[in-house]
Design brief:
alpha+beta; Jelly Rolls; Pro_4_hyd_alph; oxidoreductase; vitamin c
Amino acid sequence: MMVDGDETVEGGDSQSSDLLQMNTAAATTEMAIPRLNLFPNKNHISDSYDDLELEFSSSILRSLEKYLPMDMLTANREEKGKFMSDILGKYISREECSQAKRRKTYRQEITSNYQPRFKGLYKLDPKLFLLPSFRKAISENTEESFRRIISEPFPGVFVFKMFQPEFFEKLLVEVENFRKWAHETNFTIRRPDNTIFFPEVCGTMFDSHYGFLTENGEDRDADVDFHVEDSEVTLNVCLSKQGEGGEIFFEGTRCKKHMDTDPKPEEYFDYCHIPGQAIIHRGCHRHGARATTFGRRANMILWCQNSLFREMQTYEPEFSDWCGQCVHEMKEKESQILAAKRRELIRIES
């Protein structure tokens, strides 16, 4: 190695230039982190990704596409799919991806082989299955419009009417037709997984949902035990109820740490579901159904999920303001601190 008179290494300009280029390239690579816009492009029409082999469902990608930066909106579907998958991969576990794939395969097998009794049910025309009062509230989309149709008989449990009576009747006939087809073809009807999540509800945007129907009572499924659900928010609609029993009981919202703690007296609440009514509650609101003494009941369940909010659990404070036990422990801790300060003041004065 030769040193010039100015104490620079011979060829230093070239080496410095190469080093600068390498550092610039490394910085560029480090900065090339996929990012979304804060606000959606409401005029953009999202593509369908059903035919692409991607980790995430088409419904999730279609919702996310409206948040893509402008330079990505004009890209082809493969590029957009990869861009969004890289982002989602940071927030959704592999197990959740595998579960979504299994559900997608399950639905495809049904749609390819099952012949519906009422094909109109699958088009989901709002005028055919939603009540006018509910459609009006959705159309106005104000707090006042929703308060007109929703009551809150217990904190965190909201009740309202949603569907047309004819929709219930056709849906139950369709379910019986599907059950008969499954029996004749030896098709296994899957039940929802009892995987437990305890996410805080942080907003109103859900990137996926999972719907199913339950029937309990004579010659049907066993009644649902005490549980929480794989959802941020759960919609439960009573389709029919014949006989007695089957009341829904609630025993307080809980975080993962306090799942097995006893409920406080003020957290007990029993709700008698009525055909035609819907209730909404948090998935982490512990609940179950009392025994159906005789007869049958049918309910339609929709789990609404948000993967981003689940990731935010990592950054939760010591006490969650939505967990009944956390709130109780926080108040106890504050009382202990105040009592200690009071004792210290008494000691100083004496």
